[in-house]
Amino acid sequence: MISLKKILRLVLAFMTWTKLTIHNTWGIINVFFIVWIRPMKGGLISDSHPMATGINPESKKPIWPENIIFQSIRDESKNYPIDVEIVTDVGNHLRKMVANSCSSEKYPSGKADRMPPAINYIHGAVHYNGGFLLFNDFADAISHFSNKEFQESFKNFVTIEKREPVTLFRNRNYDRMEYTAHDLIF
Fold it and tell me: For the stretch 153-185, what's the b/e string if a residue is b when 16 or more beta carbons lie within 10 angstroms of its beta carbon?
């Protein structure tokens, strides 16, 4: 016999799925608009803009270490790179995407790129303004995201600060099936 608790859980799951689907569809429509309908042009920011350099104008240092908002306890038995190196590598990769669409003396409308300028600019907002969360692996992230205090803190970061979270794993060779198996349980 199906319990009331199970039915309630299914109803809540459906409501969450519906909200996420509507939200994602709205995002897709907006991206479609700025890429195809009214394309955002390259060259909107200069190559000296902080989103193109990754440098905080106040500290004159790379912004990414300043944007680490959470670091789980490192698994010292593993030889993971230093957290600052991880966020700097990821931030620099995203910064380069923005730089492709920036104006410069040589490329006033940005460099020709397979990614449209709108997509490059979106990544720029994430790398410069986002908050980095570092975990050892999926299991570590899942254990934190399952914690009510962590969930509340994370929700406040997204809703109050209105910043994009960037989840990173120290272990780059993670098992994707581990994540899939966990995802299917819920």
Answer: ebeebeeeeebeebebbbeeebeeeeeeeeeee
Angle at 131 between CA 70 and CA 35, to 5 degrees: 150
What tokens appear for 49 in the block?
């803009």
Each residue's pLDDT tens digit, 69-107: 999 999 999 999 999 999 999 999 999 999 999 999 999
Q: Positive or negative, the Cα torsion across 179, 186, 136, 155?
A: positive
Read off the pLDDT of residues 33-66 as tens digits, 9 standing for 90 and up.
Answer: 999 999 999 999 999 999 999 999 999 999 999 9
Query: Read out DSSP for 31-93?
Result: HHIIIIISPPPS-SSBTTSHHHH-B-TTTSSBSGGGGEEEEPPP-TTS-PPPHHHHHHHHHHH
Residue type, 152: E
Tokens representing residue 116 in the block: 């449209």
Total length of the chain: 186
What is the amino acid identity at position 154? Answer: F
Instruction: Look up tokens 């990173």; give the residue.
Output: 168
